[in-house]
UniProtKB/TrEMBL annotation:
Residues 212-298 form the Multidrug resistance protein MdtA-like beta-barrel domain. GO terms for molecular function: transmembrane transporter activity. SUPFAM superfamilies: HlyD-like secretion proteins. This is Membrane fusion protein (Multidrug efflux system). Pfam families: Beta-barrel_RND, BSH_RND, HH_MFP_RND, RND-MFP_C. It is found in: Cell envelope. It comes from Rhizobium metallidurans.
């Protein structure tokens, strides 16, 4: 009887323990279910392609459009300077006067020699006519006729030589007035008045043309390929392909006029690995000075069908840069991306995203790969703006 009661008590106790364990497990499950966080809320943008204007920024340096040396073309004494040093002069202005006396005398001598040669030619022509007439009348000899013809031909050659000497003398006399070969700004006078000038070595002054001026900078070879590719695409569509240049000074202010790129080197500089380029820009107020450093922003190309994402969506991982997108199942997905140029506060994506992808732009810190998210679509993507890529020129 006692054993039977013990077995009954043991059975009851086991049932109580099973019930208690079941109640505990149910409570734990309910507690765990109550503690599980809801999917994180994120904001997404529907990826779409667009045409994005690009620009590139370089350190640049101003150089003169033209710079020439003014030298004497004849020897002589420098009598007078006709310009103010550092002033603007025009092409053809008389800058210096040299003593013309010896060259005036040389011209008079050459003119006298010309008259003498012309007189001899007139005499030769008369002798030729006379001897030809006598020969036709069977009175003169053939030798006399031939001698007369030769004398006339020699006289003509003497006249031509005398005319050349007169021309040379006129040129030398004209060279005593030293004129400006180009329009521009003069430098300091190099030789004082009263000095003996030699045409071989005497530098009188320099003239620098400052309107327009050149802007010199350098592309990297990768950027040059990219720009050429974009220009070729624009050409195929019949669009304008001119590269424009805007200048910025060291204090952040911008120059009022834009220039155009007029030259790009066909070879890569072996010392710097860059490609030299040059733009021409108007400088009527002489704000741009040769040797001055500026920052040049080159624009005029457009990237078609570009994907642009906001910088806030971009993350950095051990394998590189990536973004999160939301798949059709509502779960977050990692997309490794390759970036192109920065466009304002956004980036152009070269690979890793496609049009139609749902990009997570806000709440990315709370996202875990493969986890569900509560996505809210953003009304519109951020404005791409205007891109600027900075490159240091040599």
């Amino acid at each position: 009887m006692q054993n039977k009661n013990q077995r009954h008590f043991s059975t009851v106790r086991s049932g109580v323990l099973v019930a208690a364990v079941s109640i505990f497990m149910s409570s734990a499950a309910l507690a765990q279910q109550a503690a599980a966080p809801p999917p994180p809320s994120v904001t997404t943008v529907n990826i779409a392609t667009s045409s994005v204007p690009l620009s590139y920024q370089y350190a640049a340096r101003i150089s003169a459009f033209r710079q020439t040396e003014v030298r004497a073309r004849v020897n002589g004494i420098l009598l007078k300077r006709n310009f103010v040093e550092g002033a603007q002069v025009k092409a053809g202005d008389v800058l210096f006067l040299m003593d013309p006396a010896s060259y005036e005398a040389a011209l008079m001598q050459a003119q006298a020699g010309l008259k003498q040669a012309q007189a001899q030619l007139s005499q030769g022509i008369r002798e030729e006519k006379r001897n030809i007439s006598l020969f036709d009348q069977k009175v003169g000899s053939q030798k006399s006729r031939d001698d007369a013809i030769s004398a006339r031909e020699l006289a003509e050659a003497a006249v031509a030589s005398a005319e050349a000497q007169v021309k040379t003398a006129e040129l030398n006399l004209g060279y005593t007035k030293v004129t400006a070969p180009i329009s521009g700004v003069t430098s300091l006078e190099q030789v004082s008045e009263g000095s003996l000038i030699s045409s071989d070595s005497s530098l009188l002054t320099n003239i620098t043309q400052l309107d327009p001026v050149y802007v010199n900078f350098s592309f990297s070879d990768a950027e040059a390929r990219e720009i050429r590719h974009l220009i070729d695409l624009m050409k195929s569509k019949g669009q304008e392909q001119k590269l424009r240049v805007k200048l910025t000074f060291g204090d952040g202010s911008t120059y009022g006029s834009e220039g155009l790129v007029d030259f790009t080197s066909a070879t890569v500089d072996v010392n710097t690995g860059t490609i030299q380029a040059r733009a021409v820009i108007d400088n009527p107020d002489r704000q741009l000075i040769p040797g001055q450093f500026v920052r040049a922003t080159v624009s005029g190309v457009t990237a078609d069908s570009a994907i642009v994402i906001p910088e806030v969506a971009l993350l950095q991982g051990p394998q590189g840069q990536f973004v999160y997108t939301v798949g059709k199942d509502g779960k977050a997905k990692i997309n490794a991306v390759t970036l192109g140029q920065k466009v304002g506060s956004n980036w152009i994506v070269n690979s890793g995203l496609e049009a139609g992808d749902q990009l997570i732009t806000e709440g990315v810190i709370k996202v875990r790969p493969g986890s569900a998210v509560n996505a809210t679509a953003q009304a519109a993507a951020a404005d791409a703006g205007k891109g600027t890529k900075e490159t240091a020129a040599n």
